[in-house]
Amino acid sequence: MQKVRNLVVGCGLSGVVLAERLASVYGEEVLIIDRRPHIGGNIYDYKDPATGITVHKYGPHVFHTNSREVWEYLSRFTQWHRFMYRVKAVLEGKEVNIPFNLDSLHKVFPRTLAEKLEQKLLDTFGFNRKVPILELRQSQDKDLEFLAEYVYQKVFLGYTVKQWGVKPEDLDPAVSGRVPVFISRDDRYFQDKYQAIPASGYTAMVANVLNHPLIQVKLNTDFNTVKNQIQYERLFFSGAIDEYFEYAFGPLPYRSLDIVFQTYNREYLQSGPQINFPENYDYTRSVEYKYYLDEKSDKTVVSYEYPCAFEIGKNERYYPIPADENQILYNRYLAKAKELQNVYFIGRLGDYKYYNMDQAVSRSLNLLKQ
Ligand code: UDP
Hints:
This protein is of the alpha/beta class. Helices cover 33% and strands 24% of the residues. The strands form five sheets. Strands 8-7-15-16-17-14-18 form a seven-stranded mixed sheet. Strand 7 (87-91) and strand 8 (94-98) form a beta hairpin. Helix 1 packs parallel to helix 13 and helix 3 packs antiparallel against helix 4 (111-125). The radius of gyration is 22 Å and the shape is globular. The relative contact order is 0.22. Bound molecules: uridine-5'-diphosphate (UDP). Uridine-5'-diphosphate is lined by residues 89, 98, 155-156, 159-160, 163, 175-176, 178-179, 276, 278. Uridine-5'-diphosphate binds next to helix 6 and helix 7.
């Protein structure tokens, strides 16, 4: 029987930050395990051997935060490649800015109509406002109703049905609210103060977070298999909370992705790093990775994301599904979790929350402050 003071399950961002704080701030020993053969969880990246391009195995990750604390914390473990994300969606065969903004408006409508709609938006919401599509759809004004319906149909409906299997209004409004209509010409995907990609990749950053004499890392180690062989005083669990409780109330639903990578024998394929396809094809988006770190190669690597349901033992969990009935089910697990002593749940899977990377870091930093 191995004895440890702290056991952390999961080498994703949530778990590694927690382990680092336990070791650095509290001077405590930590064993951190992961059932996968690599660290980093779903932010794991690697250099594709054929091209030297840094590829994100579990789909695109672009770091952004308004939290100076999170930014400064991670900056201790990585240099940054400053990078402002720009995304396009193909609507009626044309590439337009996403979030849909005033430039997108002028790209898809004839001038007089675009000018009229722009004025209506400015009068109704004001310049620089971000309006979630579900809010825009509440408009009583005939012109805004027309615009809302257009954007809903062309940008959100097809993409969301592919991504989540349901319509935007059947999810927590915060999901489509992540990409609001933007009454501005700002064409950045995020407006956060800090935006960047780790200059040597996410995996290298995570390796640095874990690089502490009090932290022991064990990969290819499934909690279910070793839990009776390890005696721990505290457990920090970033795996799926429903799995921890052996699906006592039934499984929590997640979305998964089938990500197909393709290498092209040309310098660039796309006009930019990410193209969304709300209307066409069965994938939601294509991502060309060399744009992220501005890597040079005469070849290029592009990924295509085909969303699907998560099935236990068949594929990986990517997204908790933010909807009322799932929250109710999660709350039953949460109540059970609160009965436990010295067991803490963290991360997208432990908290069943659609965290961005910075929120995952904050969550772990704050948990230990309590
Ligand atoms: N979304 C959409 N069309 C787009 C971009 C986003 O309908 O062109 C919706 C969709 O429901 C998506 C959500 O907004 O799941 C959040 O998008 P985000 O880019 O934040 O998703 P992530 O990168 O986390 O997968």
